[in-house]
Each structure stands twice: as C-alpha cells, then as structure tokens.
Amino acid sequence: MILIILLFFLSLVLTFWLVPRVLSRTSIGHFLHSRWRFIEECFHTHQFYKIPKFNQHMQQNQLFHRVVTYLNSLPSAGDLNSVNLFSCNNNPNEITLVINNDQVFPDVFLGSRVYWTLDNDCFVLKMRRKEKRRILSSYLQHVCKIADEIEQKGKEIKLYINAENEPERNGRWISTPFKHPATIDTAMIETDLKNKVKADLESFLKAKPYYHRLGRVWKRSYLLYGPSGTGKSSFIAGMAKFLCYDVYDVDMSKVTDDADLKLLLLQTTCKSMIVVEDLDRYMLEKSKSVSLSGILNFMDGIISSCGEERVMIFTVSNKEQVDPAVLRPGRIDFRIHFPFCDFSAFKNIANSHLGIKEHKLFPQVEEIFQTGASLTPAEIGEIMVSNRGSPTRALKTVINALNTHSGKTGTSHKAITHDPGHVSSGLPRGPRNLSQSGSIDGLVDAPSKLMHNGSSRSVEVDASDHSGTFCTENFHTGKELKNLYGLLKNRSRRRDGSVDFEGEGKVG
C-alpha cells in the first residue's frame, strides 16, 4: 500500500514538472502563459510613460534612440510574434530588428516586469504603479548605459542631409551610414599640414574646460578653399572619421529662409560635423533665400550655442568672392588652401595610385610643371586609376593631358581662372569642368571629366562653367602672359609652400 502511495505522488511530481516544460514549447503553452500574464496584470494598476522621437521643436530625442538600441540588444527580441528584419546596404551581414507598432515588448529589471510598446514614433513604457519609485530611475539609467556601451563598441558614422519629405513628422534630416574610405593621411596635401590638422582636432576634443573658462562655445570652424577637384570633400570625410563624428551636410538650396536655417542647426546633435560646401557660389546667386545676416548667425550667433562639441566646415572655390565678415577670426578658426597639383603633389599621387616613387618620365613631368601647366589632383588621380595596370602608360597620359592644358592656356582666347590671392605655380589656372556637384556627394565620388582620344587622354576645358565663382580675365597676347607669369612667379617665391595653412585665434 505504501509503495502505491509513493508511486502516486511520484507520478504527480513528474506530471507537474514535465507538463509545463512540454507546454512551454508548444503554441498551447505559449497561449496559456500569455493569458496568465494578462490575468495577473489585471490585478495591478499601471503607470505609463511616453518617449516621443521628437520634441515640440522637432529636435531628436536621444532617449528614444537609446531605447531602440537597448531593445534590439535583448535576447527576448527574437521571441516576439512578429518582427521586421532589415540589413544595411553597406553591410548586408548586419541584421537590425525593428519593432512593429502596437506590439508589446516585455523586459525584466530587478525582478519587476515592464512593457514597451511602439505607437507612431513614440515608445510607451508600462510598469506597475507601486514599483515605479523603486525601479523607474534606475531602469532608465540602465537602458541608457547599455545603449551607450553598444554604440561605443560599434560606433557608426552617419551622413545627414536636409532632404526629408515629411519634416513635420520625421524632422528635417534623413540619414545614411557614412562609409567613405578617405582618411586625413590619404589626402594629397603636405605631411606637416596633415599633422597640424590632427593636432588641432585632438586638442579641440580635450578643450571643453578651457573653452568654458573663456566663456566661449566649444566648437571649431574650418575654411577649406581651392578649385573643384583639389580634395576638399575627401578631406572632410577624413576629418569626420578621425573625430568619429556624424556629418550634417547643409544643402543651402533647400533652405527656405533664415529661420529655417536656424531650425536645421537646432536639430543637429553634439559631437557632429556641420558642412556647408560651395558657400561662395551660393552667396553670389541672385535668388538666394538666406541672407548674409542669416549665414553669420548660423556660424557664430546665439543659435550656434545651442549645441557643443561641434566642428563647422565651410568650403569655397575662391575666398576672395566671400564677404570679409564671413572670414573674420571667431567665425573661421583655420583656413586650409587646396591648390592645383604641383610636381611634389604629383609624386605623392603617383606613389599612392601607382606604387612608384621614381620613374624615367618624372623629369619630363617636372619640366612641364615648371612651365606653369597643371591639373587638379582629381584629374591626375583619375588618369592613374584608369591606367593603373601600366605606370608608364599612366605617366604618358598625364604628360599628354598637361601638354594639352598648357597649349590651351597659352593660345586659347577662353577665360582663364585666377585666384589673385594664392597662386602656387606662377600661372593662372584654366577652369575645370568637373562632375563634383559641390554637395556632400563629392565625398562619394567626384572624378574629373576626361575625354579619351585613342590611347591618350585629354582634359576637357569648359570656359563657360564659371557660375560666377572665379575672377576671370582674358589674355590675348603672349607678351601679356609672359609679364603676368613673371609677376606671379615673384609673388609665389615669397610664399612658404604650395599649400597655404593659416591659423587664426588658435585655441586649445
């Protein structure tokens, strides 16, 4: 009899131990478990907290993005009934989970259950009212800590552009991963200049107490000036990667007025790089919507103090066409000149693109450079990329392009581009017809327009493509050109080098 009783109790124990585990792996068990949770929660009062994506000024809510990162990291994210999975265009192996609207996402913290729901770009946090004082503050801190650790490990630079079609709902910026391969070291400028820029950026990152002690906003402004195709956009990409900052590319043509420009700045984040390309071209346009005063306030007005740890970068083709008020110290801290390619820069490009430091054709190339002929680094680089299988053919093509440009400069009646403030090789430069658009698109790919003619390549010169950016003059006689050459050659001898780097008000 005793044995029968023991067997009965043993069977009951096994039943209560095995049945829940078997049911938990079936749809019936999942249904019963969810219903039990629902009934249990009905006996409690709850507190709800909303976390919208944007505030009333359409500024991004950083807590919202931290919640997204945190929920994606939880193992229970895969237990939801229905989820959306996305892969990044630049990294197909990286899978991201996106929660559907009105879907309940459970979490457990300090023994208490909380629930997340996404409702039209607004997260709703639900917890028991009696537990909110015990866990609310510490739970949100936990969410932010985990999210920051995840983002720090896999920091991904993003490119933001002001092209959002529904700004009232999604804000003014849309983003995409920024995967540009350029670095400061790959820039076709002097090594000393690269080191100076790196040192200045590193000093800026540590200078918050110093700036605040001076009563200044913790930001830095750069002016990059020089013709199209000289590497300004690639240098911006290198600076962004060096700082690990997101890039906000401001398309001035899509800004409606001064107030709209201020709103754009308000919706940027700290630790970001704000870029305005071709500022001189925009300021020369007759139908511009943003005034000079609006641009000045954007650069260093009260509105610029609404966020810190920012680097602002402005590019121009000819700084002589820019109002002096824009370039004064305080608005622009550093100026970096990107000139046409000289022989020294040519050797660096040949080394990086073709892997050669010396070649029998180098003396011939140097001789042509000494006559005043030149191309942009983008033009020379494109020739070398297209002929990378044969360094000799690449150099011969460069020589042909230099000779073609030199001949057009000396004999053509087309207008010649000339920056009277900074001349590197002694001659005014012919205009280039480049595909670089003047927006952040140049950070992706901006090859020069070169025409193939048999086995050689010649440079297409378009004298009509000035867009009011450069000062132009016509030279009709060889005598006038010779006189100008002597004058500019004397001026160039007084300069320190081919790359002009000016530091104004260097801080930190």
UniProtKB/TrEMBL annotation:
One MF annotation (Gene Ontology) recorded for this entry: ATP binding
An individual GO BP term: response to stress
The keyword Magnesium is annotated on this UniProt entry: yes
InterPro entries: AAA+_ATPase, AAA_N_dom, At3g28540-like_C, ATPase_AAA_core, Mitochondrial_chaperone_BCS1, P-loop_NTPase
Any one Pfam family match given in the protein's UniProt record, by short name: AAA_lid_At3g28540
Key words of the record: Hydrolase, Magnesium
UniProt name for this protein: AAA+ ATPase domain-containing protein
